[in-house]
Task: structure prediction
Amino acid sequence: MTAEERVRAVEDAIEQLREGLGRVGVVLPSLRIDPLTCAGHVLYPLVDLGRCNMDMALRLVAVLAGTYSAEGAPLGGGEPSSSARR
Result:
């Protein structure tokens, strides 16, 4: 696999991640391919998840904890539990 093909593969993975996170209401505005690893000698460039505000970080925690549905709405109609906010 050429370097260009590896970069394309990582870009595709990033797009899939962006779409998947978007379906549950999580937006990581800085999600991108790590430019330093593109120029390096790693097999595949790294994915830079980037930065997000506290609300988005807590939403991601809630999604990972299973307290939000795939549509981004709280399960059971409530807010994420305090354990999901740690």
Summary: Confidence is low (pLDDT under 50) at residues 80-86. The first strand starts at residue 32 and ends at 33.
